[in-house]
Write a structure and sequence with these properties.
234 residues, alpha+beta, Umud Fragment, subunit A, 2 domains, two-stranded antiparallel sheet, 28% helix
Length: 234
């Protein structure tokens, strides 16, 4: 892993702990012997930590470099011989917003053909290449109603979160996206126009959903990723 990636993954982990009330900037400053302004600049990408500074933060938070690796980068004893790759099934909220999946967010694991993983083309925007790439979610009743008969309730879809571009993955079949709404995760076909994302269902009896893009947002902020594999219930 490059130093820049390690640095960014540490920043995201510290922000996650702060957002969950497990840590504050002042506590981190005190335990690392940094000025609070230095910690604030680090968290807001205004200043980078040196290698020595990164070590101080890791030590203070009982973290190691292994803790900052995405789950799909961790080696397994059988990885070379296997024809499949283990992908974590996570909550919808984790798929939408967690750069690196944490243990409480994991519901299950599935095996995905290794060829699917290796053949998937990435098109990451807005730093998405720093996120854990492949996650899976279980399709709920609302998502299934919008995408029947392509998707059914309890199907599992694998999302490539390194593809958050509006550029169609291929002309046919159309790209199915996972999109972050205000309160839920949508599975849909996707267009953009007039500062709005247009979420089109496959089932034409379900209404189109429009999501306004705020002035400080870009469409890629809302796109969780491309659905690259579907596993039916078994």
């Amino acid at each position: 892993m490059k130093f820049e990636t390690l640095h960014e993954n540490l920043r995201l982990e510290i922000l996650r702990r702060i957002e969950r009330g497990l840590l504050t900037g002042s506590v981190l400053a005190r335990t690392t012997d940094f000025q609070q302004a230095h910690i604030s600049n680090f968290l807001n990408r205004k200043r980078s930590l040196s290698l020595e500074g990164l070590d101080r933060v890791l030590t203070a938070q009982n973290l190691s470099v292994i803790d900052l690796l995405p789950a799909d980068m961790l080696p397994t004893p059988t990885q070379k011989a296997s024809l499949t790759r283990t992908v974590t099934v996570v909550t919808h909220s984790a798929a939408s917003s967690s750069a690196r999946i944490q243990s409480p967010e994991i519901i299950d694991t599935i095996e995905v053909p290794d060829a699917v993983i290796h053949s998937s083309r990435a098109h990451p925007l807005l730093g998405r290449d720093l996120w854990q790439r492949f996650v899976a979610v279980r399709v709920d009743a609302i998502q299934a109603a919008a995408m029947e008969p392509l998707l059914r309730q309890h199907f599992i879809v694998v999302i490539d979160r390194h593809y958050n571009s509006l550029t169609p993955y291929r002309l046919q079949p159309p790209t199915v996206y996972a999109v972050r709404g205000s309160e839920s995760l949508h599975l849909c076909f996707l267009e953009f126009g007039a500062d709005r994302l247009v979420l089109r269902p496959h089932n034409q009896q379900i209404p189109i959903i429009l999501i306004a893009i705020a002035p400080n947002e870009q469409p890629a902020d809302r796109i969780v990723g491309r659905v690259c594999y579907v596993l039916s219930e078994f």
